[in-house]
Every structure is written in structure tokens, then in C-alpha cells.
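Usage

Read records sequentially. Each one opens with the input sequence:
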Amino acid sequence: MNTDDLNNQQDPIRITTPLTNQVIAGLKAGDRVLLSGVVYTARDAAHKRLVETLLAGQELPLPLPSQVIYYAGPAPARPGQIIGPAGPTTSSRMDSLTLPLLEAGLKGMVGKGNRSQEIRQAIVKHRAVYLVAVGGAAALISQRVTKMELVAYEDLGTEAIYRLEVLELPLVVANDVYGGDLFEQGQAQYRDAEMLK
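and closes with the structure output:
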């Protein structure tokens, strides 16, 4: 990407949770967004418990419809801070446990890296969106958190589920309801650029 490309990019789209179908329909792979509102953290162990709870027909410890799950395990906060570093974890680790959550109404996921074909298809089917955060920017991300509280699974430590209130968390749409995939687009652009050399 050259300087002209950066100057021609649109301003980030501001979105707020809970996510609606209308908001999700307005997002396309590659769009930059600033997310505000409530997001819930959940990693591998928490996902396993959530799915087990769903399969047992029990009530979940958080509302899933129209909500966003952030694949993160925030580090403990230093004195005077709301949260410690809170970088994204690799999203594909949650792929085998994501479908039941989408079926239960989950609308957004935030992490890093690409998703499986099955999850990309489920994102289209269930009208959801997958957003990526910049890996290695854990300290920056933590500055966008205005409030944090424990929701469930305290025994999991940093992998417990936390309710975060975020203000303009910078993200990029990776998978949209139209089947768009930022990672595939990036690879195609790279191949095209290589062919022009």
C-alpha cells in the first residue's frame, strides 16, 4: 500500500454495541471501524464452558443475542489502571466452538488471524461479522477500555469472561455478511502486484 492509498481510505465507521443487522449489513471486509459499547472477553476455556452450557439447555452467564465477544484474556491491571494489556488471541482456536454461539445470536467476534471456511459460511448465514484487532497492540487496546467487570468463570483467571466497556476500539472488518474475506483480498492484491513487476 502506498501513500496515495492511505490518503484515499475512508474514515473509520463508528459502530456501537449491541450490533444490529442493519449495522452489520453496512460493513464490508477491509472497512476500518471504531467500536464502542460493551464487549465480552472469552477465550478457549470459556468458549468450551459456554458451549457445554448451551448444549445442556442451561442459561448462559451473559446475553449472546446481538453481542460481541473479544478473543482476549486481559492481563491483571496495575494500580490505577482499569485493565492490563488486552491483546487479541488467535481466532481460529475458537472455530470449533463458534457455531453454537452464532446460532444463539452472537453477532460479532474480535480477534486476530483468519477463520475456517465453516465459520466464514456461518458468519454469512447468521448475519454476523468478524473483526480483527492488531496483534501486538495490547497496551493500546487497553487504553480504549473504560470499564471492566468479571462476569463468569473466575476460576479461569485471565481467561474468565469479563464485560468490557470500550470507546472507539480500532478494528478492521475481516469477514462480512457478503462472504468478503480480508485475508483472501490481501493475498489477491499481493499476487496482482507481483504480476505487475
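Summary fields computed downstream for this record:
- Helices lie at 3-8, 21-25, 44-55, 95-103, 117-125, 138-142, 182-196.
- The beta strands are 13-16, 32-41, 68-70, 108-111, 129-132, 145-152, 161-175.
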